[in-house]
Design goal:
The complex is a heterotrimer of chains A (427), B (315) and C (274).
Chain A lengths: L1 H22 L5 E11 L4 E2 L2 E2 L5 E5 L4 E13 L4 E12 L3 E6 L2 E7 L1 E7 L9 E4 H44 L20 E2 L3 E6 L4 E8 L11 E6 L3 E10 L7 E3 L5 E5 L2 E14 H8 L10 E8 L4 E6 L2 E6 L1 E8 L7 E5 L12 E8 L5 E6 L11 E6 L4 H7 L2 H16 L1
Parallel strand pairs in A: 4-14, 17-26
Antiparallel strand pairs in A: 1-2, 1-3, 1-5, 5-6, 5-12, 7-8, 7-13, 9-10, 9-11, 9-12, 13-14, 15-16, 15-18, 18-19, 18-24, 20-21, 20-25, 22-23, 22-24, 25-26
Chain B lengths: L1 E10 L2 E7 L2 E2 L4 E5 L6 H8 L7 E6 L2 E2 L4 H5 L2 E4 L11 H12 L4 H11 L15 H13 L5 E5 L7 H16 L3 E6 L2 H7 L2 E6 L2 E7 H8 L2 E9 L3 H8 L4 E7 L2 E7 L5 H10 L3 E8 L3 H11 L12
Parallel strand pairs in B: 4-9, 4-10, 7-8, 8-9
Antiparallel strand pairs in B: 1-2, 1-3, 1-5, 5-6, 10-11, 12-14, 12-15, 13-14
Chain C lengths: L2 H19 L2 H27 L1 E4 L4 H29 L1 H7 L4 H34 L5 H27 L3 H27 L7 H20 L1 H14 L2 H29 L5
Helix pairs in contact in C: 1-5, 2-3, 2-5, 3-5, 3-6, 3-7, 3-9, 5-6, 5-10, 6-7, 6-9, 6-10, 7-8, 9-10
The chains are: A alpha+beta (427), B alpha/beta (315), C mainly alpha (274).
Chain lengths: 427, 315, 274
């Protein structure tokens, strides 16, 4: 009895202790971490690698930015991941970064100046990385553009002040019945630079061919900094192809995607589909997921297609039983809302001549699927050469009464009962 | 045909078979007699390789079973007390399955012939689940004969059958033996064994207590006579003295009468009369009863007597 | 042909005949088709509701459910295969003849595969009907999935046979199967829960328990036929050839090991009606 009592008390204290630990605020810990800016095929992502992660994933043959930092790391239970408190501590660590292939050092990198150049603004995409002198030039160019803009803004406000004054003078003269002359011309508001360049920072910038490497940071005395030795996997895509966003005419706000050639596009009866083709690359899911979110998971045996840019200068061929039945081109479309009690909308081809000021809601390749027959879609370039991995099958689904499907599923039982009865009656 | 040498089978604390040495000769019907729980079925299961002996050796056709497992099994036919048939099959299907198992050629002809012999041909397409106990037993026999076995092993083959069924099965066994098959038959019914066996081995509590032909065995088993006494003035002390008389083997009391088993070498009735009067008893009746083979069998199995020696077997 | 193969062939024939004339096979096939009918119905609803549906191999998902039902039937059927015969005494009678432990186990195993194939044929006929009626069409991955499912059924059957060789009563076998299935699923849930926890949030003792549990689950991954089933389903869904082959070989090796174990267990436990 005593033994059981002791055991129960121990169990209880263990439980209480565990609960206490569960309830405690996340502690912050000083750690040497890697902070990266990696190319993900479309843009630069900024993953961070806490000490607990031993492998870094980057895309091969693209320049990526590596920083070794000392920071405060804590676990954020809501997103179930480690976070860096950069505001609390953000200290650059190390002087050189070594890359090893096996035991052989194949690269030794010093920190260089770098900037990110956003030609269409921060959210516009098409980010470019510049290093060294070019980085500094880009930054100067940006600063110059910003300076120029502020000067123009300054001048604009002065001009606007003058303009207001002139305008008031103009109205006063009119009120007094005096000749006022020409109405003052409003000054034009200056336009801010559409591009953006980050501050010049220092980091290790280099690209690597596909392979598995080891990286480590060294201090100014050439000693390896503890906690900086990590495996680095530089990976590439497996295949290239064309992926499609498909907008059904009946539900234009619910597009579907067909990214793999094995994907079949099922269409309900006859209807119209709008195809938006994208260049796409096929990556290993684990590698690609880890690239931008190192603490996420992925399956090493799964491959995923990632859309890159919109495919341009292509046409879509529609085939039926291997015969070309239509070749379609990309066109702009707009959605016309139907007013009144009927509600709804119509998708219409945007005719620039007819509506010169209208803007397209989307551009796409339109295909009206006939009610019967199977069709194949394939993208071709300007020379009518078929683009690999661009083919998709389109099948109209025959919607039958669901009861037929359920009733048919009972067929094996009916067969069994017949066999059983014949067997029993026969005896 | 079958030979066991110092065969033992032990289940945890129980010794089911002890130092069993039997030999079944070609062409004979060997009756393996013993009360329920004597170890007969255990012995048969060991012969068939279904149970593994704790120690000892079994030879079938002068070979170890595992030296040619399938070859030997194909030369044996087995019938057990209960047939355990596949009740979802018809008789024909069932027998056809065993024909396939034994690799019997011309199986249709064979099945037809055997079913005619047991008068079940007309029911060949009936499900076995619809068969009576006696019919199932016959199907068991047919199954055992499909492969023309050289050796038939029968475990309580007539147990639970009605007299007609018993006779039919008995005739079948004798017929098969006449055709040259060796039969090894276990039973707890002495009369059955007595009728058809050439030689009998009696197993009791796992030990072979007798083995001989029927004639010799009868002589050995009936070496006692039973004398019924009705006495007045016979107290417990007197009973004790009667039991210790040198020619008295056992004493039991039944409905107020004393049953005294004495040796059969001479008539001891005079000695008993003298003894009763010597202790002042009033003998009202004395009657000699011949002991049947059945009684003798029960006596030796109940008292655990071995006929190989005159001594009682001690556990 | 060796005497053993003659015995195996004869028992398979008998068992197959018994299955063919019984209702179990047809009930399992119907359940498999009925479960997949719900998936087909959801496809139709999706296409009808959204006007479009994009899918690589639409028959695979319903097939997976059909395979789960069929494989469970195989597991239940094999887990009672020997215990039922022991219970009825028919196994003992088989051993009077030229039949040994290996031949019985192999025959029962192959019969399970034959039954599974019959179910797959019936399911495929139903799928053909549905694919034609709805114009969903077939893809080669359906064939791959069916081939893999045979190996999965093999591992299920060998697992069931092993359970069956351990027991002498139908009820015990089924209870044991349910208990083991429940236990394995419970451990799987526990494992999934553990994966969501981070060591920082746990006490040292909990981390230690987690470590042990994690290792136990790693072993169970190889010891449970259900993990081959789930991995197989994933392999086809992902279209991963390496995973497909790995799973096929794994299921095959598992089957061999479990069948060997069943032979020795049957020898140890005996074939007699108790």
């Amino acid at each position: 009895m005593k033994k059981y009592l002791v055991f129960c008390l121990l169990l209880l204290s263990l439980l209480v202790f565990s609960l206490e630990v569960f309830g405690a605020a996340p502690p912050k810990k000083r750690e040497i971490v890697y902070s990266l800016n990696v190319w993900d095929g479309k843009d630069y992502a900024a993953p961070f690698y806490p000490a607990s992660l031993s492998t870094i994933y980057v895309m091969a043959d693209f320049e990526n930015v590596y920083s070794v930092k000392e920071t405060l790391v804590y676990y954020w239970p809501i997103t179930r991941e480690y976070m860096a408190d950069w505001d609390g501590l953000n200290k650059d660590v190390g002087e050189t970064l070594e890359v090893l292939k096996g035991n052989q050092v194949i690269g030794e990198y010093k920190k260089v100046d770098y900037v990110f150049y956003y030609p269409k603004g921060y959210w516009g995409g098409g980010t470019q990385l510049f290093t060294g002198e070019k980085a500094r030039e880009k930054k100067k160019e940006y600063d110059k553009a910003v300076d120029k803009y502020w000067k123009e803004v300054d001048k604009y406000y002065k001009d606007y002040y003058e303009y207001n004054k002139k305008l008031q003078e103009f109205y006063r003269k009119i009120q007094e019945g005096k000749p006022a002359g020409q109405i003052p011309k409003e000054p034009k508001q200056p336009r801010a630079p559409t591009f953006y360049v980050t501050d010049v920072s220092k980091a290790y910038v280099f690209s690597l061919p596909v392979g598995k490497y080891t990286i480590r940071a060294k201090d100014k005395n050439g000693n390896i900094i503890p906690g900086t030795v990590k495996t680095l996997i530089a990976f590439s895509h497996r295949r290239e192809g064309i992926g499609y966003n498909i907008i059904p005419e009946s539900k234009w706000t619910y597009p579907e995607t067909a990214n793999d050639s094995s994907d079949i596009i099922y269409q309900y009866r006859e209807g119209t589909l709008y195809f938006q083709p994208y260049k796409e690359w096929e990556f290993n899911e684990l590698e690609y997921n880890k690239l931008s979110k190192p603490q996420s998971s992925g399956r090493p045996d799964r491959w995923i297609w990632v859309h890159m840019d919109r495919a341009s200068k292509i046409k879509l061929n529609i085939l039926s039983k291997n015969n070309l039945i239509a070749q379609i081109r990309e066109r702009p479309y707009y959605v016309e809302q139907i007013p009144g009690s009927a509600l709804g909308y119509n998708i219409k081809l945007l005719d620039r001549k007819e509506y010169p000021y209208a803007t397209a809601d989307f551009t796409a390749f339109k295909f009206s699927v006939p009610p019967t027959g199977d069709y194949k879609l394939v993208a071709v370039n300007e020379n009518n050469d078929i683009i690999e991995n661009s083919d998709r099958y389109i099948r109209p689904v025959t919607v039958t009464d669901a009861r037929n499907i359920f009733i048919a599923s009972l067929a094996p039982l009916i067969i069994g009962i017949i066999i059983f009865i014949i067997r029993r009656i026969g005896r | 045909m079958i030979k066991t040498e110092h065969l033992y089978k032990r289940y945890e604390k129980v010794e089911a078979v002890k130092d069993l040495n039997i030999s079944v000769e070609p062409g004979e019907i060997y009756g393996f007699l013993g009360p329920n729980g004597a170890g007969k079925t255990t012995t048969i299961m060991m012969i068939l390789g279904i149970l593994k002996p704790t120690s000892g050796k079994i030879l079938i056709f002068n070979k170890d079973l595992y030296s040619d497992y399938f070859g030997i099994k194909r030369r044996i036919g087995v019938v057990s007390e209960v047939q355990y048939l596949y009740e979802d099959m018809t008789a024909y299907e069932y027998l056809s399955f065993f024909c396939d198992l034994y690799g019997v050629k011309n199986k249709d002809r064979k099945i037809e012939e055997l079913l005619h012999r047991v008068n079940l041909y007309d029911r060949k397409d009936d499900l076995l689940g619809h068969y009576s106990r006696g019919m199932q037993q016959k199907i068991g026999f047919v199954r055992a004969l499909l492969n023309d076995p050289e050796l038939l092993i029968l475990d309580e083959p007539v147990s639970g059958l009605d007299p007609t069924g018993i006779r039919e099965i008995r005739d079948l066994i004798l017929e098969e033996n006449r055709q040259g098959r060796t039969v090894f038959m276990s039973s707890h019914i002495l009369s059955e064994v007595e009728r058809i066996s050439h030689r009998v081995g009696i197993l009791n509590k796992g030990r072979l207590v007798a083995e001989d032909n029927m004639e010799n065995l009868r002589k050995k088993l009936t070496s006692e006579v039973e004398i019924e006494l009705e006495i007045d003035n016979f107290d417990a002390e007197a009973e004790k003295r009667l039991e210790t008389l040198p020619f008295v083997n056992s004493l039991t009391k039944e409905d107020g009468k004393y049953l005294v088993r004495v040796k059969a070498d001479k008539d001891y009735r005079g000695d008993l009369v003298s003894f009763v009067s010597s202790i002042g008893g009033n003998l009202k009746e004395i009657r000699r009863r011949e002991m049947s083979l059945e009684d003798a069998f029960i006596t030796i199995t109940e008292k655990n007597i071995s006929l190989f020696s005159s001594e009682e077997v001690t556990e | 042909m060796s005497y053993r193969w003659v015995a195996i062939k004869s028992i398979i024939k008998r068992e197959a005949r018994s299955s063919f004339f019984g209702l179990g096979l047809y009930i399992a096939s119907t359940l498999a088709c009925f479960v997949s009918a719900f998936i087909f119905n959801s496809y139709i609803n999706t296409v009808e509701g959204n006007n479009i549906m994009v899918m690589a191999s639409p028959l695979n998902m319903p097939l997976f459910y059909a395979v789960i039902v069929s494989a469970l039937y195989t597991a239940i059927s094999s887990s009672t295969a020997l215990s039922r015969e022991k219970d009825k005494g028919t196994l003992e009678v088989l051993f009077y003849g030229p039949v040994d432990h290996l031949s019985v186990i192999l025959a029962k195993f192959f019969e399970d595969i034959v039954s599974f194939l019959i179910i797959m044929v019936l399911v495929t006929l139903y799928f053909v009907y549905t694919a034609i009626v709805t114009n969903l069409g077939f893809s080669i991955s359906y064939l791959y999935a069916v081939i893999l499912s045979i190996f999965i059924a093999g591992s299920m059957s060998s697992f069931g046979l092993w359970l069956s060789s351990l027991t002498a009563r139908i009820r015990t076998s089924v209870l044991l199967l349910i208990l083991i299935m429940g236990g394995l699923l419970g451990l799987q849930f526990l494992h999934n829960y553990i994966l969501t926890l981070k060591p920082e949030n746990l006490s040292l003792s909990m981390v230690y328990i987690m470590g042990i549990l994690s290792n136990v689950l790693r072993i169970i991954r190889w010891a449970s036929p259900f993990s081959y089933l789930m991995n197989g389903i994933n392999a086809v869904a992902l279209g991963s050839t390496s995973m497909y082959i790995e799973n096929m070989l794994g299921a095959f090796a598992y089957t061999i090991v479990l069948l060997t174990l069943s032979v020795y267990t049957l020898k140890w436990k005996g074939v007699r009606k108790l």
